[in-house]
Write a structure and sequence with these properties.
- By secondary structure, the chain is mainly β.
- It folds into two domains: 109 residues, CalX-beta domain (Immunoglobulin-like); 145 residues, Immunoglobulin-like, CATH 2.60.40.
- Helix content is 9%, strand content 39%.
- The strands form seven sheets. Strands 13, 15, 17, 19, 20 and 21 form a six-stranded mixed sheet that branches. Strands 11, 12, 14, 16 and 18 form a five-stranded antiparallel sheet that branches. The protein has a four-stranded mixed sheet with strand order 7-3-1-9, with no helix packed on it.
- The longest helix has 26 residues.
- It starts with a helix and ends with a strand.
Length: 291
Amino acid sequence: MFVPILSISNISKKLLFFSAFLLLAFSGYGQDLSIEDVTVDEDAGTLVFEVTLDADVSGGTTVSYSFIDVTTTGGVDYDNTVGPDLSFNGDKDEVQEITVAITDDFVDEGNREDFRVELGTPSNGVGLSGGGDARGRIRDNDTAGINVSTTTGTTTEAGGQATFIFTLDSQPTADVTIRIDRYETTETSGPASVVLTPANWNIGVPLIVTGVDDDIIDGDFVDDIRTNNVISLDSFYDDFKGHRMSLDGLPNGDAACNDNRGYNMSLECSPGQDGACYDISGGTEMTPIVK
């Protein structure tokens, strides 16, 4: 009698093991959801994560998700509104998508605006592959930079003025102060700095330079006006290196001209015989400005 009891006990164990195996197989244990990293350009409009079920699951499964900022600001750089749970019918290789709207702004934020999507615990015993999270990366398309337009007007000892217009290549997150390092004080004068803000960065701020009457017969001159390093709480603009601008000046009137080289420009030129003005470096005729 003792041996048959052992045999029945062994059979019962095998039946229990087989039943447990079937239960695990059909309830979703051993099946996983996975989500992959995604990278897009800032002007793409949306960033789409794909969540994939890797095997058949009887009864399907659902899963929630959430957003975590890394170097982004949710609600500013991307829409961090969480939608309804993802619902899977239970088919192998079934894919559900999480579509995230992204913001194409004008701010230099570096080339790696990152956030993460984390999946919650799936229903029906389904697991998560690779930790169940993925990185979303937005490649920024803005670069900090400073521009100076061609001058208008000409300085003279009679008080004539010339104007440079400063603009920025990207919208700063704080005021950008461009300091003027030096003027030729016996020839020109002007403000100590120009300030561009998040509101006027692309409209431009003028730097108006005025000629000084020095009572000296010194002829025409070229004044080098230098900008010092920039000051800003925006790290992409703070300590931006200074540049040199050259300004053509006249004593008490005559023909003068401007060229169109933009930033770090040279405005040195000489009048032609017909009263027009010529760019010394290229000989190109320019429109004269007569004082």
